[in-house]
Specification:
By secondary structure, the protein is an alpha+beta fold. It contains 2 helices and 5 strands. The strands form 2 sheets. A 3-stranded antiparallel sheet has the order 2-1-5. Strands 3-4 form a two-stranded antiparallel sheet. A hairpin with a 2-residue loop joins strand 3 and strand 4. The two termini are about 30 Å apart. The relative contact order is 0.13. It binds zinc ion (ZN).
């Protein structure tokens, strides 16, 4: 996968290394993006319990819950934010 950058001028996330005529800031490199993509797919499609996630009745998980679960590996309890 391609790197993701954030424009330092307008704040847009982009796969281009320049935006608004200036070098954009690297957010995540392509290899890590690829690994994160596979991890999210595994957790959401196959095994949310691996990191302590639970879905609602319609199969949704809050983005903050997902990010926090990935960051902590499901080893921590409730946290704020
Ligand atoms: Zn821009």
């Amino acid at each position: 996968m391609r790197n993701i950058y954030k424009c330092v001028v307008c704040g847009t996330f982009t796969e281009d290394s320049t935006h608004c005529g200036k070098p954009a800031k690297l957010v995540i490199n392509g290899e890590l993006r690829n690994r994160l993509s596979h991890l999210m797919t595994y957790l959401l499609r196959h095994n949310p319990g691996a990191v302590g996630l639970s879905m609602d009745r319609e199969g949704w998980v809050g983005i903050n819950k997902l990010v926090n679960a990935i960051r902590t590996g499901g080893t921590q309890g409730h946290t704020h934010g």
